[in-house]
Amino acid sequence: xxxxxxxxxxxxxxxxxxxxxxxxxxxxxxxxxxxxxxxxxxxxxxxxxxxxxxxxxxxxxxxxxxxxxxxxxxxxxxxxxxxxxxxxxxxxxxxxxxxxxxxxxxxxxxxxxxxxxxxxxxxxxxxxxxxxxxxxxxxxxxxxxxxxxxxxxxxxxxxxxxxxxxxxxxxxxxxxxxxxxxxxxxxxxxxxxxxxxxxxxxxxxxxxxxxxxxxxxxxxxxxxxxxxxxxxxxxxxxxxxxxxxxxxxxxxxxxxxxxxxxxxxxxxxxxxxxxxxxxxxxxxxxxxxxxxxxxxxxxxxxxxxxxxxxxx
Length: 312
Fold this sequence. Notes:
By secondary structure, this protein is an all-alpha fold.
């Protein structure tokens, strides 16, 4: 940790934390988790998970980082020297997850370039698997396609470049640009999706409650897993970013801003995604259950379709 490095404002820290929370778990994971775990009834375990795990654990992680103001491994060592090896295990796990994330961000970048010419055509699902090299369950990681590989290399370079700048010239500056831009873009896309004919079909499918699912322990595990995943808890991220907070920071206020932003974003996005799926069902006559797919494939097929419709 760089001595005396501090966030230049609370906004910088909040945007960085929102950036660490809002992402893949919100955009392509939450929609399917909500749909497949009871629809509207899932909000009960979801809100309970936020109340009894999300907020308390974030307070703990914020507090640890804020109090010790040291690197993640040194914090564990200062708490108890015997715990230092645990911190290195966590870092190794996060690095492994980072490899997985960078590949998906590489797919995103490939789609960004493809969006200028609508290269995916009328069959985004085929384009995703054959041209991008994607797979809805990531079971084919050894396919190398030159455009996608170059995008992944570029993402690694950009990650290195941002992380090697000082705190406020790197992460803070990037967050101030990327996070508001993400929210503006997603808001525009989702509002448009909600106006599509058949959008109501998707929304009704998404939120139709199945109260019997509340008796299923797996639904509750899914809710707690979603909160753990989307708020980036237990991954060294929160502790590390909080370690750069100045002494007059309002920890609890920041936590509530991050949690509320994260939840609103993923719920809002789920409504948009299923509005598009509802339109696809309405337009093709294919039942929703046949259109809905799990995981990454859901988003890499749905969003190109909405761009085709918007004609952007």
